[in-house]
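Course assignment 3, question 2. Fill in each field.
Student: A.L.
Task: Predict the tertiary structure for the chain below.
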Amino acid sequence: MSDGAQTRSGAAASARVFVDARRAGRAVRDYPGAPPPTLADAYAIQDEAIALWPDRIAGWKLGRIHSPLLEQFGAGRLAGPIFAGNVWRAGAEPTVFPVIAGGFAAVEAEYVLELGQALAGPGWTSSSVADHVARVLVGVEIAGSPFAGINDSGPAVTASDFGNNAGLILGAEIRDWRTRLDGLTCRVQIDGVVVGAGGASDIPGGPLDALAFLANHLAARGRSLEAGQLISTGAATGVHRIEPGQSAVADFGPDGAIACRSASGAAASPG
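Answer field:
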């Protein structure tokens, strides 16, 4: 058996463990198989898992890679899919979302770009992607994985399991976003205690730069962004761990707030 076949076999095995655990709501104590040494290896596992997951991709999340790991892995961001069954609309009552007991779960205040036009091929910049954005909304990314150590094991491990994404809660549309985007601010509370504050300026290069990165990244993987997809552009106040039963509020000031609550359970999937 060739090394390439062995690598694909290992990626498929790791992906299967993650997908089965997510669908069952079951924690994974140790990383399944050999942890990916590079981001390319991580995305090979992610692609295998996407093929196994019985739902369509509704969008993508982006996460930040800090120095010195940025230099080691050759990228400042990582990406993961968001599936349609794990997208919720915020309402008057707190949105209840599932987390895997014994796994990893966190909430992140985010600025979400809704695409009006597809983005295919390489060569995108923050300027060239702007006209492809139909709307900008406030949102909360639910970070989550069956593997509790996902964020402590390096960005390749994080990327391999759907980029540590477990869902997205959509809030209100941001009006006049083209003139206001750079100055937007927000904060996050968990059980009434402020755990982080920041804004769009805390996302390196801003949300449009995150979108340009994603379009170029997906092009290199033979994928593209489709009209209507939602892009969660990165944690504006940090990544805030949350346990089953805890409540959180992401407050975006004049652009509204999103209240949510975690509960033990399995990831939504239609299959």
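Instructor remarks: The chain has one domain: 3-264. The chain has a mean pLDDT of 94.
Grade: pending
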